[in-house]
Amino acid sequence: MNTTNKGTVKKLLAVFAHPDDESFICGGTLAKYASEGVDITLVSATRGDMGRRMGNPPYLNRETMAAAREIELRDACKCLGIQQLLFFDIRDKTVEFIDEESLTSRVEALIRDVNPDVVLTFHETLGGHPDHCAIGKATTAACQRTGHLDSLYFITFGDAMERPERFGYSHKDVMKIDVEAHLKAKLAAFRAHRCQTEIDEWVWLPDHEALAKFGRYEYFLKADRESSAKKRDNLF
Ligand SMILES: [Zn+2]
Hints:
InterPro entries: GlcNAc_PI_deacetylase-related, LmbE-like_dom_sf. 35% of the residues lie in helices and 17% in strands. The protein has seven helices and seven strands, in the order E-H-E-H-E-H-E-H-E-E-H-H-H-E. The chain is α/β, with parallel strands linked by helices. Strands 3-2-1-4-5-7-6 form a seven-stranded mixed β-sheet, sandwiched between helices. Helix 3 crosses helix 4 (130-146). It has one domain (11-222): Rossmann fold, CATH 3.40.50. Zinc ion binds at residues 17-18, 21, 129, 132. Zinc ion (ZN) is lined by residues 17-18, 21, 129, 132.
């Protein structure tokens, strides 16, 4: 088990926007820490009910999508070893319109409840989707209020942070996690999000071919850029 100095189980809180963010962006890292005994709580702010992918051939419609995506996310959580799943039940594609204070307060209450050792969320400007940026901004504010900023990391896309200078960061701000041993779990989680991945032919290739499409590393930005104590290859 992955434990703190006090002998208690380490905890990770991931606050994301949509079912699939956890698998597609940082599934290898979540699977890695779950396999080491870290207790993971995932929040999905929405149920992804406005998603444009309906399966291939389409088997969902606007009415059935939210329930289907919840089931698929629960399957993905099993693949990755995520133990707790919560929804904020915000309508998909409207997170940016939620009152900022009320959203921050919800995340703050959750942080105080879980008391995580590591928090993951989106960067408030590099998140790539308005829902991502909005939940990232609220989670960052909540971490500031609760004194968790030094354990907050922003998830990033692909290997973009191999060259962080392009985003105004330097290599010392980047955490690089080796997830090679956990790519099978990541692939299983991709496939669990069936309605989102069925149009991506590569996901359904034979395992060894599909696994070859993944990078070996997942990258995170430190929220607290002043902290230099931590190693770059481990979030804990
Ligand atoms: Zn998303």
